[in-house]
Write a structure and sequence with these properties.
The chain is an alpha+beta fold and 105 residues long. It has two helices and five strands. It has one domain (8-89). Helices cover 23% and strands 33% of the residues.
């Protein structure tokens, strides 16, 4: 039987191979110890994956947000959040993939 839980290491490897950049964060926007991966999808609109590692279950947050520039990610709050999803199992990840496909049409 396949696990319903995600393999965060596999997801991180996928992010690195699809032009996501790991962002260091020094502001108060994200939890301490979170790994943040970002990719610009339109001018100043970014797709972010925030991987939280401090808790018992792996938790990934996905968001599409507007920042004034790439370098402000991790320093400032986003100017606008257009989409947010907390991904805690493979079903959540499946819903997110469906959302991304629909947003390209």
């Amino acid at each position: 039987m396949k696990s319903k839980y995600m393999d965060c290491q596999k997801i991180v490897k996928t992010l690195k191979h699809t032009d996501f950049v790991k962002v260091s964060h020094t502001g108060k926007c994200f939890e301490d110890g979170a790994a943040i991966y970002a990719k610009e999808i339109r001018e100043n609109i970014f797709l972010l994956f925030i991987i939280l590692k401090d808790i018992d279950i792996e938790n990934i947050q996905a968001l599409i947000a507007h920042f004034d520039c790439f370098s402000s990610i991790g320093l400032k709050e986003p100017e606008q959040i257009m989409f947010y999803l907390s991904i805690k199992d493979k079903n959540d990840l499946h819903y997110f993939e469906q959302y991304l496909r629909a947003s390209h049409n």
